[in-house]
Amino acid sequence: MFMNAESLRIADQLRRAFTGDPWHGSPVLDLLAGITAEQARARPVRSVHSIWELVLHVDVYLQVGFEATQEVAMPKVHGTERDWPGLRDDSAAAWSAAQDQLFQNAERLAHAIEQFDDAKLQDTVPGRQYDFYYLFHGIVQHSLYHGGQIAMLKKATSAG
User: Fold this and answer.
1) pTM of the entire predicted model
2) How far is residue 40's CA from residue 154's CA, in Å, rounded to a whole number?
3) Strand, coil or helix: what is 79?
4) Tens-place pLDDT, residues 36-92
5) Burial class of residue 55 (count of CB atoms within 10 Å of its CB; 0-12, 13-18, 19+)
6) Are 143 and 16 in contact (CB under 8 A)?
């Protein structure tokens, strides 16, 4: 029998992190509100990634997490070029598209998690040595961690 009560809770946590009402404070959607392309690419703190780079970075993990739910082997991302994609276009339209893609991929992954049988949460992620439960919670935690960085950078750019 298909059970997904835990998967539904994890999907809810992912949605709260991006667009909902998280316990800790503002969701990523609210954190990014009002940030211009210029502010998003700014580096108010030396040797720290920009808001835009953080958005692209978080999006990578949403994408590979979703692909793993489709039984695609999860590639090594950490420490590779894919981990921190560079800006190819720094226009306002590209900034808007990057945000749209982030939220679309967050919702796509949340929907995939909702459809996930709880019995599969202990299955090993293709290409990894850990299970889906660890992956899904890790993606939520990773997103919140970088959301905190976005909040600090937003204040540093006077956008918040």
Assistant:
1) 0.95
2) 8
3) coil
4) 999 999 999 989 999 999 999 999 999 999 999 999 999 999 999 999 999 999 999
5) buried
6) no
Three-state secondary structure call for residue 131: strand
For the record, the structure tokens of 118 come out as: 């709880």
Indicate the SS3 state at residue 120: helix
Q: Where do the domains of the chain lie?
A: 5-156
Q: How far is CA 49 from the centre of its chain?
A: 15
**Alpha carbons 150 and 51: distance in angstroms, whole number:** 6
CA dist., res. 66 & res. 74, Å (int) = 9
Say which CATH architecture domain 5-156 belongs to.
Up-down Bundle (1.20)
Please name which of 37, 6, 11, 2 lies closest in space to residue 114, comparing C-alpha atoms. 11
In Å, how far are 103, 111, 144, 147, 151 from 27, measured between CA atoms? Answer: 11, 18, 8, 8, 10
CA–CA distance, 148 with 130 (Å, rounded to integer) = 26
Q: What is the amino acid identity at position 17?
A: A
